[in-house]
Amino acid sequence: MEEEMKDKDLRKRVPYHIQRDVLDELGVDQVAEKSDFKISAKEKFREAVRCTGPRFKSCFLSFVPLLTWLPRYPFRENAIGDLISGISVGIMHLPQGMAYALLAAVPPVFGLYSSFYPILIYFIFGTSKHISVGTYAVMSVMIGSVTERLAPDSDFMIPGNDTNSTSLDIVSRDAERVKIAATVTFLSGIFQLLLGLVRFGFVVTYLSEPLVRAYTTAAAIHVIVSQLKYSFGINPQRYSGPLSLIYTIIEDCALLGQTNIGTLVVSIVTIIGLVAAKELSALAARKIPIPIPVELITIIIATVVSWQMDLKTEYGVEVVGKIPSGLQAPVAPAVSLLGSMVGDAFALAVVGYGIAISLGRIFALKYAYKVDSNQELIALGLSNSIGGLFNCFAISCSMSRSMVQVSTGGKSQVAGAISALVILVILLKIGELFEELPKAVLAAIIYVNLQGMMKQFGDIRSLWRTNKVDMVVWVMTLILTVLFNPDMGLAASIAFSILTVVFRTQLPKYSILGQVPGTDIYKPVEDYNQVKEIPGIMIFHSSATLYFANAEMYIDALYEKTGVDVAKLLSHKKKLEAKRLRKEKKAAKKAKKEAKKRAKEAVKAAEGEEPKFSDTDESGEEAEANGDVHKLSVKEPKDVAAVEVGPDPDTDTTLPQAIILDLSPVNFLDTVGVKTLRNIYKDYGEAGVQVYFCGCQRGVVESMEKGDFFNEKVTKSILFSSVHDAVLYCQQGNSEEVIQGTHL
């Protein structure tokens, strides 16, 4: 604290002096010469659809970035790094593609297809130089939830030789699941493509960093649970819908007695070996520029051991099985299935894009280039839609592969193209060599690759210290995604995240501002000891915008902070007015009755009878004395309307001369907000308190104009650009001395 004070004392204070007139909104418009020029919607549309030669060329080159950067590719500087990086990443694609295919509930070879076709498409249309697109655990488990829901094992049970026995038709099941995975991938690509064409790249802004990190952590839990059957060699029942993860865990625990010991040993040995090898690789990374392909070495060793020991036959260990060589011809998506997977496809589109653009922006900021968010949507959309035609499943980018691509010298999209060529060689020549690879080894690779996501639980502690609302979003996203499927969990998490924003606008900080002595700076009086309120002037400030959800609370806070409940005050005045009117009416009725009585007595006097006047009736005596009874003057009692009223204990307060509403945090006004400000101005005006507004943004002023806030009596002269202008105007209006300028 002392060091901060010393730094503050050492800091040079620059004095300044300003002299100007006090300006309201009309004065500012006049001095600054406000422009009323606006482009009509018709002109905007005409300009948007206008096509010229240079504009067409620019649009085409932005749509196909390859044509822009490839002709200027620095071959000498980047070629070697991209070659080494591409080979390294391609080697990683092999085990990860096969492993993540298990998550998608399709045969492993389709994970290799998904590591080939989409990468080539992204190479042509993508704008990020460093991310490695391809299979990704979160996307794969989301695909798996769709394929297993629409093609469960129970639909492919065929009767066996015995009367009560059945067997699973694996070939038909896998073929149907491949068709489902390809169709939902195609549809998600169409969604991404359409969003990109309509420039909807900002949709990712609804995915905050705490939400994304919690979601990937919860998805990792889904991934781990889904792979337990391969680690223990069991065959649990497939569950879908809410709480499916809980039911699966219970089912797995119930089947632990049927664990295949050989499969469990393979899993444990592989996990221990991978963790140890990765730690050694991290230590050796300082001396070896190229990372050690630990996963590739693992699957090679596991395949050789499985082949030599015949683990499938001797110990019942489940292996990958047949891997066909070559590429497949494109297949049209199953149109009949599209209606049952619209929500899943949209969730895949948003999650895949959100992860890719987040990682792409990180690398773009680090290496000083720009990533086009809308073009990234188009690139991913084309990668998924075209990949879906070739039986691929949805892709995104992987942090681990991207880090390897950067660390091994990758500097452009060429590295991705080279990694795709590595996968092509594997598909054509090498793939069939891994048919004896145990699936437990692929599950172990998935577990080890997810350890980074599981470390994200540390976010809870850091967010507790920095922002507790973000921590609540993190925890709720984790809980919702774990309890629901990843697609439903994402929708619920986004809804909850948006609700926290709404709640924060409904619970802003309301305060009364005071002046920092000798300055034009105004701060909340409760936060500063030297800040004092301006006598007779209340300055009300809200930290949030004003709209329908918090309009009523805004008024309540205004009444509370200013100490003036206008509603009660006006109600009390109405009661006093009604009481006064009743007394006037009663007095008038009494006077009328008295007048009739006097008239009757006057008539009797004219007929010779002695009138009966009261002792206090001077007019009657005067009439009798003068003998002119026909000119009798009847006077009503004086001051009958005078009502003396005491103060109401509930509203007994000293009213301020003026109230200034600081609207600088308000960035928009809806109809309810305009009506609220109109009522505040009207009600306080009826109570004898003038209301002024300051810090209004242009959109707020336009909303007030459209909402008929202003009229012949209420003009823009009640609007001021700053709090200080409004304060000086109030002081000027309540003093004889005219202030010509603002002196600081």
UniProtKB/TrEMBL annotation:
<dbReference type="GO" id="GO:0008271">
    <property type="term" value="F:secondary active sulfate transmembrane transporter activity"/>
</dbReference>
<feature type="compositionally biased region" description="Acidic residues">
    <location>
        <begin position="616"/>
        <end position="625"/>
    </location>
</feature>
<dbReference type="Pfam" id="PF01740">
    <property type="entry name" value="STAS"/>
</dbReference>
<feature type="transmembrane region" description="Helical">
    <location>
        <begin position="474"/>
        <end position="503"/>
    </location>
</feature>
<feature type="compositionally biased region" description="Basic residues">
    <location>
        <begin position="586"/>
        <end position="599"/>
    </location>
</feature>
<dbReference type="Pfam" id="PF00916">
    <property type="entry name" value="Sulfate_transp"/>
</dbReference>
<keyword id="KW-0812">Transmembrane</keyword>
<feature type="transmembrane region" description="Helical">
    <location>
        <begin position="100"/>
        <end position="125"/>
    </location>
</feature>
<protein>
    <submittedName>
        <fullName>Solute carrier family 26 member 6</fullName>
    </submittedName>
</protein>
<feature type="transmembrane region" description="Helical">
    <location>
        <begin position="413"/>
        <end position="430"/>
    </location>
</feature>
<feature type="transmembrane region" description="Helical">
    <location>
        <begin position="377"/>
        <end position="401"/>
    </location>
</feature>
<feature type="domain" description="STAS">
    <location>
        <begin position="527"/>
        <end position="730"/>
    </location>
</feature>
<feature type="transmembrane region" description="Helical">
    <location>
        <begin position="288"/>
        <end position="309"/>
    </location>
</feature>
<feature type="transmembrane region" description="Helical">
    <location>
        <begin position="255"/>
        <end position="276"/>
    </location>
</feature>
<dbReference type="InterPro" id="IPR036513">
    <property type="entry name" value="STAS_dom_sf"/>
</dbReference>
<dbReference type="InterPro" id="IPR011547">
    <property type="entry name" value="SLC26A/SulP_dom"/>
</dbReference>
<feature type="transmembrane region" description="Helical">
    <location>
        <begin position="180"/>
        <end position="202"/>
    </location>
</feature>
<feature type="transmembrane region" description="Helical">
    <location>
        <begin position="345"/>
        <end position="365"/>
    </location>
</feature>
<feature type="compositionally biased region" description="Basic and acidic residues">
    <location>
        <begin position="600"/>
        <end position="615"/>
    </location>
</feature>
<dbReference type="GO" id="GO:0016020">
    <property type="term" value="C:membrane"/>
</dbReference>
<dbReference type="InterPro" id="IPR002645">
    <property type="entry name" value="STAS_dom"/>
</dbReference>
<feature type="region of interest" description="Disordered">
    <location>
        <begin position="586"/>
        <end position="631"/>
    </location>
</feature>
<keyword id="KW-1133">Transmembrane helix</keyword>
<dbReference type="InterPro" id="IPR018045">
    <property type="entry name" value="S04_transporter_CS"/>
</dbReference>
<dbReference type="InterPro" id="IPR001902">
    <property type="entry name" value="SLC26A/SulP_fam"/>
</dbReference>
<keyword id="KW-0472">Membrane</keyword>
